[in-house]
Design a protein that fits this description.
alpha+beta; 5-stranded antiparallel β-sheet; 5 strands
């Protein structure tokens, strides 16, 4: 007996792949490889319908033909099972049955986990919705005012200094905002031609407020 491949990889995944190959094999067997056998048995089943109505049923010859058909099918599926590393078609079908069962159990577990996650998100959303109703809404102007109070250089003209990139020292710009993640001011650098300059993030210690300069009075990028 060839060494079983049942232990190779997750059983559920191998089971799905095996079912796909078996489906293709079955189509090939029934529509191509057994075509000649089935045609040879047509005359055996050329029976008068009245025989069935009278209760006489199938003939011995038909029963014998059916047994040959079953034997032929078993031969083809045993060959398929051997190619897949199983000792018999029975062993192959048993593996598929186990794999399908395991896959169903796995999917049910995944669905339960997903449902728990959805329930948790639903509760979080409901809590957030309730809190949103109780917290006074702030206007955009109020939020901007609070941010500027915490970071007073926002909206101010500044000059850069003390940077490791010496070519940037002495450049002027306008502070546009504050990046709370990297804790730096967002500075829009001035340009010689008055176009919109590059935005950079600078530490507070590396910028100094200066009186707002007229065009052309400051060192600019470019």
């Amino acid at each position: 007996m060839a060494e079983s491949k049942a232990a190779e990889g997750p059983a559920a995944e191998r089971g799905r792949e095996l079912i796909g190959r078996m489906t293709q094999h079955s189509f090939k067997v029934l529509n191509l490889e057994m075509d000649e056998f089935l045609e040879s048995q047509i005359e055996v089943f050329d029976q008068d319908p009245d025989d069935f109505a009278s209760g006489r049923g199938e003939t011995l010859e038909q029963y014998d033909s059916y047994q040959k058909y079953v034997t032929e099918l078993e031969r083809h599926f045993d060959a398929f099972a051997a190619e897949e590393g199983f000792g018999s078609s029975k062993e192959c079908f048993e593996f598929i049955e186990r794999a399908v069962s395991e896959d169903m159990v796995r999917q049910k577990k995944q669905m339960r986990r997903l449902q728990k996650q959805l329930d948790r998100l639903q509760k979080q959303w409901e809590t957030a919705a309730i809190e949103a109703q109780t917290i006074p809404k702030r206007t955009r102007q109020e939020i901007a005012a609070e941010l500027k109070a915490e970071h007073p250089l926002i909206g101010k003209a500044v000059v850069l200094h003390g940077l490791s990139r010496e070519e940037m020292n002495g450049m002027n710009g306008m502070v546009e905002g504050w990046d709370k993640h990297c804790e730096r001011y967002i500075v829009r650098l001035a340009t010689k031609d008055g176009s919109k300059g590059k935005g950079v993030k600078i530490k507070k210690v590396n910028i100094k407020e200066v009186p707002k300069l007229e065009d052309g009075d400051a060192k600019a990028e470019g």
